[in-house]
Structures are given as C-alpha cells and as structure tokens.
Design brief:
Length: 89
C-alpha cells in the first residue's frame, strides 16, 4: 500500500501520522488520507478537489505532473509527501 506523509507544519492543523492507503493515483491516495480530516482537506485542496497553489506533492521524491486531475500513478510501495510550498521575495 502507498504511504501518504504530511509535513509537521500541515500536521499542526490536525495530527496526521503517515497513512497507508490502497490507491492507484495520487488523487485517490489524498482522498483516502484526508478522509475525516476536513480542516486539513480544506487547506490542501479547493472545493473542486484540486490542489491549492501553496501545496506541493511528491511521489517517491518527484513532483507530481498532474496538479489538476491528480492522476499520477502510484505503486504499492509509493511514498507520497504533501507539503506547503515555500515562497519569498
């Protein structure tokens, strides 16, 4: 099963240890991992189920390609990392 990890900053919204999910896409993995965590879900995803601009998602160390449909494929050993994007000026 794939594992979804949230950074410590995102965990401050709701304690969410790494979650193992049975999913074949990053979208399905996020939906499973965020089930019952509505405060965190609303911070990570918009009302249309798309990632918010300030959120970055990586699969096995590589940034996802499809931020709109979240269709990037997962394997049983995939490690998904969800984090807040850094910005500055």
């Amino acid at each position: 099963m794939a594992t979804v990890h949230f950074t410590s900053h995102l965990q401050s919204f709701v304690n969410s240890a790494p979650v193992e999910v049975a999913a074949t896409t990053v979208g399905a993995a996020l939906n499973s991992a965020l089930d019952g965590k509505e405060q965190l879900r609303s911070y990570v995803m918009d009302e249309h189920g798309r990632l918010r601009r300030h959120i970055m998602v990586f699969i096995d160390g590589k940034i996802i390609d499809d931020r709109v449909n979240l269709s990037d494929s997962l394997t049983d050993t995939s490690e998904v990392y969800v984090m807040q994007a850094l910005s500055g000026g």
